[in-house]
Design a protein that fits this description.
Layout lengths: L5 H5 L20 H8 L1 H5 L11 E2 L5 E8 L2 E8 L4 E4 L3 H12 L14 E3 L4 E6 L2 E6 L5 E4 L27 E2 L5 E6 L2 E6 L5 E3 L8 E3 L5 E2 L5 E8 L5 E6 L9 E6 L9 E8 L4 E3 L9 E4 L3 E2 L5 E8 L5 E7 L5 E7 L13 E4 L4 E6 L6 E6 L5 E4 L6 E9 L4 E7 L10 E7 L6 E2 L6 E6 L5 E8 L2 E9 L5 E7 L3 H5 L6 E6 L6 E7 L10 E6 L17 H8 L3 E6 L8 H5 L10 H14 L3 E11 L1 H12 L6 E5 L10 H8 L4 H5 L12 E7 L8 H12 L5 E5 L8 H17 L6 H8 L1
Parallel strand pairs: 39-40, 39-41, 41-42, 42-43, 43-44
Antiparallel strand pairs: 1-2, 2-3, 3-4, 5-6, 6-7, 7-8, 9-10, 10-11, 11-12, 13-15, 14-15, 15-18, 16-17, 18-19, 20-22, 21-22, 22-23, 23-24, 25-26, 26-27, 27-28, 29-30, 30-31, 31-32, 33-34, 34-35, 35-36, 37-38, 38-40
């Protein structure tokens, strides 16, 4: 991909003379607005100083380093928690001089060419990557030496499909038993064992066959080396998606690529666990009535005492999820935990399991009471011993389970009344649900980094209207040990930039708060009317309205052209109640639009400048699906949309994401399809697609194009040759700007071709 910043594409173009601007553009969408938008990223970059980066704890010590912004660049800070001291991680001036001499480049103390490092040699040296190679710098002599062996290897050509490739196996090395005496391997699709170092092998299974054989990497030995378990997998046919790379860099003629790509409704591999008594050569058949229709089965894991092994069963359609335990003597399977919600079990974002005392107790995450919480399960009976966390708030993740102290460290949101329910806070609680301790006090969005032994933590927090603050605290009592950083945004505010406004309105039920942000142009005039543009991403796997401080340059630059730009989390997104989330179930076309439209109307009622007679919307991927859906299903409210890389028909997209929210195949897929509903298009549409999109099959966009043409609809299409999953990069951003300027402001965008010609 030939990506460039928008400023690189347009510099020397926008600022040239020679294009007449119509009189109607004098209010909004003028060349001055374009110039301000174009230069925004460069103008705002680096203006906020003392912004702390992520803490990096050094080994098992109480020392850590972080990188922070300073005037003109960045600096590295080293902290000793025990001594409550901080200072420069090294002599930045000496390192810059040494590295400049070694590379022939010119570096300064605040423009060192690396963002991360590792301390080595008991802290007397640092290692990092710069100038295309690895480096080691001695912190006594400040001699820097290139280490070629640390250079990052190029990606193999056959890895073109990346994470899409299904069935990629790990090492072919035999699986050695815990006592080191035996090794198991696969031959002719069956399981064999032999003594380590011997060529003489004994066959354990006889039912493996081509397309229905045993998988080497699934083999799991029991701790006593007497048994092993493995998966026999009935392999399904693999769908391939084909791509034509029209304009490759290394040759004139197009290239053909292909990738394995499983879609909703496709047949899946069917794994079945099998138990072997190695010494007796006994093959134990395991009844699969508890796991008959797997979407997938997880890795086989033995109990430490060898009494059983476990795996997790995710049923096709994601409405049944079970933790299965198989008795090592009998092969009998039982479900320790079985989640069977009426809608979906969110295995991709809300699954957590921790086995205590070799599985005699299990800490388990569940939404069974309508909110995402932690439960203590009796591993022998499967009953709930107690609910650990409870209330109308959600656990967002577990940071540590301390079996000895019977404590859990976790982060959650929505617990503090009167606060943004998406703000993340950190807590500690006992297994029995008592002694809940909040570790983060400030009413803000927190990110905490614990020391390896959990004795200290760094708490960094901010809001969209509050620059980051970072402190070192003691975990036992939450007491402040050392103030680390308090970001200074005064130079940013001096430019006229202002943080977005947080706005809350009631959703479709008249009770639920819907949260969003409002970004106005820096030259905002409350006496003017501004068209509204919504940046949408409504994927049910998360929530997407920013909660922490940033300049939001992309949204702000769009606003500078004469718009008010917003982001909203409607119903169907995550991190609220189960009912809030379930709105997406088998209904991705909903995308929270009933809530979004009410939110827009509430803003317009409060602010006369907010003109909802002219509303645009844009998004990428699932956001691209929603952006087009706005014109198909809510064309009476939305006027224009830019839809990039959209999964326009969920039957065309990857299986794991779509069946998670849409379940198994049915008429609801067609009901949510932008292809099936293309004839409903109202308003102005720009579609963008990369011809090599390996995330969403690009045919999804072209099938929309075909349906729109069949329906006689008018629209614009931008195909990006050689691009993967994309909104078009800088060129796509420029096209989006121009599109909304034309259709919402009624102003003609600059004639970029003519302007380029005047500079050549």
């Amino acid at each position: 991909m030939r990506a460039m910043k928008l400023s690189q594409i347009l510099r020397g173009v926008v600022l040239c003379a020679g294009v007449a601007v119509p009189a109607s553009a004098m209010a909004q969408g003028t060349m001055a607005d374009y110039e301000r938008a174009l230069g925004l990223e460069d103008r705002l970059d680096g203006l906020v100083i003392d912004v702390p980066g992520r803490p990096n704890w050094i080994g098992d010590t109480h020392r850590f380093w972080y990188r922070k912004s300073v005037e003109g660049g960045s600096a590295f800070v080293l902290v000793d928690a025990d001594a409550a001291e901080k200072g420069p991680a090294f002599d930045h001036e000496r390192l810059a001089a040494s590295l400049s001499a070694a590379t022939g480049e010119r570096y300064t103390a605040v423009t060192l060419p690396f963002r991360t490092l590792e301390f080595a040699g008991d802290g007397r040296a640092i290692e990092f990557r710069a100038d295309g190679a690895g480096w080691r710098c001695d912190l006594d002599s400040y001699v820097c030496e290139r280490e070629e062996g640390r250079a990052r290897s190029a990606r193999a050509e056959d890895d073109w499909c990346g994470w899409l490739t299904r069935g990629r196996r790990g090492s072919d090395a035999p699986r050695v038993s815990p006592d080191g005496k035996l090794e198991a391997f696969i031959r002719n699709h069956n399981v064999y064992v032999r003594a380590v170092g011997s060529e003489e092998a004994r066959q354990l299974s006889f039912d493996g066959a081509p397309g229905d054989g045993y998988v080497l990497e699934s083999i799991a030995w029991s701790p006593d080396s007497k048994r092993l378990a493995a998966y026999r997998v009935d392999e399904a046919p693999q769908r391939m998606v084909y791509y034509i790379e029209s304009s490759p860099d290394d040759q004139l003629q197009p290239k053909l690529h292909s990738c394995p790509y499983t879609k909703p409704g496709d047949e899946l591999d069917h794994p079945r666990p099998v138990l072997f008594d190695v010494e007796a050569g006994r093959h134990v058949v395991i009844d699969d009535s508890l796991f008959p229709n797997p979407y997938n089965l997880t890795r086989l894991e033995w109990r430490e005492d060898g009494r059983a092994f476990t795996f997790e069963y995710n049923q096709r359609g994601h409405q049944v999820y079970r933790v299965i335990e198989v008795d090592a003597e009998t092969g009998e399977a039982r479900a320790i935990i079985s989640e069977e919600p009426e809608t979906f079990f969110d295995y991709s974002g809300k699954k957590f399991r921790y086995d205590v005392d070799d599985g005699r107790e299990i800490i388990w995450m569940s939404e069974r009471d309508g909110w995402n919480h932690l439960y203590l399960i009796d591993g022998e009976t499967g009953r709930v011993k107690n609910q650990i966390t409870k209330g109308e708030w959600v656990v967002r993740g577990v940071d540590k389970v301390d079996e000895e102290k019977r404590q859990i460290w976790f982060h959650a949101s929505g617990r503090n009344e009167g606060e943004d329910p998406y703000f993340v806070h950190y807590y500690r609680i006992d297994f029995d649900g008592s002694d809940l301790v909040e570790l983060t006090e400030a009413r803000a969005n927190h990110q905490v980094s614990f020391s390896p032994d959990m004795e200290y933590y760094v708490d960094t927090w901010s809001r969209v209207d509050l620059p980051p603050i970072s402190e070192l605290r003691r975990a036992s009592d939450g007491e402040l040990v050392l103030a680390l950083e308090k970001a200074d945004a005064s130079a940013l505010y001096a430019t006229g930039w202002r943080p977005p406004e947080v706005f809350v309105a009631k959703g479709r039920d008249g009770k639920t708060d819907i949260w969003g942000i409002i970004v106005r142009p820096m030259n905002f005039d409350p006496n003017r009317k501004y068209p509204v543009i919504e940046a949408i991403y409504a994927g049910p796997h998360g929530s997407f309205v920013p909660k922490s401080f940033s300049t939001l340059t992309s949204l702000q630059a769009q606003a500078e052209l004469g718009f008010i730009v917003v982001r909203i989390d409607g119903m169907g997104t995550s991190n609220r109640s189960k009912a809030f989330h379930d709105v997406a179930w088998k209904n991705l076309k909903d995308a929270g639009f009933p809530d979004r439209i009410l939110w827009h109307k509430a803003v317009a009622e409060k602010y006369p400048s907010y003109d909802i007679s002219r509303v645009g919307i844009y998004g990428t991927s699932a956001g691209g699906q929603s952006a087009l859906g706005a014109l198909l299903f809510h064309g009476d409210f939305y006027d224009a949309a830019v839809s990039a890389a959209g999964c326009h028909d969920n039957r065309m997209d990857k299986i794991w994401w779509n069946e998670q929210w849409m379940g198994e195949m049915g008429p609801h897929y067609a009901a949510s399809s932008n292809v099936e509903n293309a004839h409903r298009l109202q308003g102005d549409l720009l579609l963008i697609v990369g011809e090599l999109d390996r995330n969403v099959d690009p045919s999804s966009t072209f099938q929309v194009v075909d349906a729109l043409i069949e329906a006689g609809k008018t629209f614009d299409l931008l195909v990006m040759p050689g691009w993967d999953h994309t909104s078009g990069g800088a060129y796509g951003e420029r096209k989006r700007w121009d599109f909304f300027v034309h259709h919402l402001l009624g102003v003609e965008a600059p004639d970029w071709n003519a302007r380029v010609a005047t500079t050549s």
